[in-house]
Amino acid sequence: MNIDRYHHQHADIRSGVSQLRNLVQGGIAANAEAIAQALIGMSTTIKFHLASEDAMLYPALNESSDRAVAELGRRYQNEMRGLIGSYTEFSGKWRVASQIAAAPEQFRSEANVVFKALHGRIQREDQELYPAVEAL
After folding, report:
1. Are 24 and 111 in contact (CB under 8 A)?
2. How many domains does the chain contain in total?
3. What's the domain range around 56?
4. Per-residue pLDDT tens digits for 36-94
5. This prediction's pTM
6. Whole-number Å distance between alpha carbons of 127 and 123
């Protein structure tokens, strides 16, 4: 299975997080509009990535004759549900610039939690899941 698109999507997500980080460092209230727009754009990439994994990658892993790989896929799929729920709640709450500007420290705090979880997930996929898929 060719998973190059997943690697490219991870790069796009990392780039989006870096862009958000730079905007936040420049001042949350001052950059609230740009932050909201970046968050909306990044949300599209993240949701597409997770939906693609859910629709194509995990079903392929579940059909694997390698029981360890099939179980790994099920574990990642189950974990993904919690992550997408958290991310969807976060992005829905903070998609409007005025909300970001009104509560900049709350935005920063919640963003740190969500993006730390997202970063950890991407790292685990790159180090564990994708190598297992590529070895099939």
Report:
1. yes
2. 1
3. 4-135
4. 999 999 999 998 998 899 899 999 999 989 999 999 999 999 988 888 889 999 999 99
5. 0.88
6. 6
